[in-house]
Amino acid sequence: MHDPLTVAFDIRRPWPERSTMPSAAHASVRWRIRLHHDCGTWCADDPGHRDGALPWWKPSSYSAFWRLGGRDYYWPPLITVWHREPRGRDALTECGRRVQRRDGTWSRTRGWRWHIHHWKIQIPPFQHMRRRLLTRCAWCGGRSVKGDQVNISHQWHGSRARWWQGEPGLYHRDCSSIKTAHATCICEQPVLDHDTYGTCARCTRHRSIGQSSKWRTRARELSAIPVGQRQRA
After folding, report:
1. Domain boundaries, given as residue ranges, for the chain
2. pLDDT at res. 232
3. Is the pTM of this model over 0.85?
């Protein structure tokens, strides 16, 4: 999938939050803050290295997910610096120069991280505040709140808005499903552009390729919900 953006740096906020994502694979591990490397057949041709925790003196060795005393925590980013590939090309196709290692494998140089003229600054706390205060669901008009966020988009390149305006074209998760159901062909005998997919001549709605009968049954239920209303269950 085409994407010109790559994360160059993350500046973490100085206080964590409880996480539902485990920072360690085994529940018996009670303390872990660094990333670990487990050797296997995938690194048999690499230069000599040790198994276990990555070097403590490298900032990149510390994970954003910590386990302290058996509890999992996450350090969200305060500022994220993105690298945007020039002329909208795929990420690192121009700036990420490839070099060959002594063992014959290839890697990319990391100098692209310091291409300041290609940086795009993202401030997640500001985005969350803006979304909470200004953004409204494009289906029901409801607010974005914790546990029921308006963060689902139906398009790859969303519509841009001024910083003092809400983001258009975003939905609650359940509203997104209802919106999709209203646009889905649920005819028993559809007349499609193609054999199994396309726009139906009967209802003018669209049926995706490989769409299952189970989803069409669910779409019939959701499409019965009036426009602008929701059913969280």
Report:
1. 5-123, 125-223
2. 61
3. no
